Amino acid sequence: AQTVTQSQPEMSVQEAETVTLSCTYDTSESDYYLFWYKQPPSRQMILVIRQEAYKQQNATENRFSVNFQKAAKSFSLKISDSQLGDAAMYFCAYRSPGGSNYKLTFGKGTLLTVNP
Amino acid sequence: DAGVTQSPTHLIKTRGQQVTLRCSPKSGHDTVSWYQQALGQGPQFIFQYYEEEERQRGNFPDRFSGHQFPNYSSELNVNALLLGDSALYLCASSDTGQAGYTFGSGTRLTVV
């Protein structure tokens, strides 16, 4: 079974600075998907960024980028130019490529605080 | 374009009662998944419905059951509620073949 570990329960960053959230995972599969989701106090889980394991290039979405290290099974999220609206819980998630396993496996989350 | 809609937003039930939670998927999505998120934890997969059938189930007892309707909307039913069932219940939808999911804002269930 796949597992996802987020070793940082809480992180803080100054507005306009850069912060990196860590995620490691364990799997025996060679192809899979990785995600970072943001959950603000509104509770809705919002997709931040997605990475396909077969792609060597790291995904980027505006101020958000990932460092995907497949051999190390590491998937960190970098937030540049942090904004107050970035404050939220961030969850790393894993998904198998399909076939018979469709679930997302989440880590326990990292609470990000952005200080003005 | 409406996203995923869940109802109700909050619910308080007594131990032993039964509850039904509802989810309308995002327009164009045909697959619905349910997750349970306990306080301070990541979401845990309950089950997924596709073509009105349960396609995959997580490690949850039979007290948790579901249904998907022809219009792709879905219900989550929990029988014989326990205090430990208190959690945020999230619904997520996707289109067949999509890897990612769109989540709703959840239903906060409190069992007293």
Describe it.
In chain A, 0% of the residues lie in helices and 51% in strands. Chain A is mainly beta and 116 residues long. In chain A, the strands form three sheets. In chain A, strands 2, 5, 6, 10, 11 and 12 form a six-stranded mixed β-sheet that branches. With 112 residues, chain B is an all-beta fold. Chain B has one domain: Immunoglobulin-like, CATH 2.60.40. In chain B, 0% of the residues lie in helices and 51% in strands. Chain B has strands at 5-7, 10-13, 19-24, 31-37, 44-50, 53-57, 64-68, 74-78, 87-94, 102-103, 107-111. In chain B, a hairpin with a 7-residue loop joins strand 9 and strand 10. The N and C termini of chain B lie far apart (37 Å). Classes of the chains: A mainly beta (116), B mainly beta (112). Chain A binds chain B through residues 4, 33, 35, 37, 42-47, 50, 52, 91, 93, 95, 97, 100-109, and chain B through 31, 33, 35, 40-45, 48, 55-56, 58, 88, 90, 92, 99-106, 108.
